[in-house]
Structures are given as C-alpha cells and as structure tokens.
C-alpha cells in the first residue's frame, strides 16, 4: 500500500503546474460579449456547427456501410438523398443567417479545428 501511495504522490507532484515567472507580462483576459444579439448569434453558430458535425459523422458511417455492402441499392439511394437534403437544408440555414458551411467550425486551440476541411485533407 505504501508503494501505491508513493506512486500516487509522485504523480500529483509531477502534474502540478510549473511555477509562473513573476516578471513575465500577463496577457489580458478575453472579454466576453454578453449583449443579447452576440449571444444569440454565437448560440446559433454553435448549434449549426454541432448539426454539421453530426451530418459529417453520419455521412462517414454511411460510406463505411456502403463500402462494407451492408445496404441494399434502394437503401443506399435513400440514404444519399437524405444526406444531400440535410446538407442543402443546413446550407440554406447558414445563408439565411449570413454564414457559410466553412464558417461553422470551432477552434479547439492546441487540438485544432473541430471540423475537418471540406475536401478531406488536413489543414
């Protein structure tokens, strides 16, 4: 038990944040805009981004099923038509609110963008 406790203490010691340099200039905190219009627009963009992410995931899964031969020809055709209709509807919603599908992406900092590029190549 002492070995496990020692290992756990070492893990916590290693994971502590490094000391900050008191002389280093501090970056100002980002200001959050909380006016009614910007909150609505940001929420709308977030919802559209999540819908686009789900659409892309469903599309990839559909392609896997088509490649595996799990679907009949009629199912493939219906799935393709449904995915195209969803893409068109999402594009229309974006255009209605002044966005393009390329605008629907979240920057996850060091992880990169949430959505892959439209052409499938990494950015």
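^ Assign residues to that structure.
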């Amino acid at each position: 038990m002492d070995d496990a406790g020692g290992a756990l203490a070492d893990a916590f010691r290693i994971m502590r944040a490094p000391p900050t340099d008191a002389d280093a200039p501090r970056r100002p905190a980002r200001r959050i805009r909380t006016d009614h219009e910007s909150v609505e627009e940001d929420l709308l963009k977030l919802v559209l981004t999540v819908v686009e992410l789900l659409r892309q995931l469903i599309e990839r899964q559909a392609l896997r099923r088509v490649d595996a031969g799990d679907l009949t020809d009629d199912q493939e055709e219906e799935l393709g038509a449904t995915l195209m209709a969803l893409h068109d509807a999402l594009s229309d919603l974006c255009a209605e609110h002044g966005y393009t599908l390329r605008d629907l992406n979240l920057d996850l900092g060091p992880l990169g963008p949430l959505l892959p590029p439209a052409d499938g190549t990494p950015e």
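The helical segments are 2-15, 36-68, 73-96.
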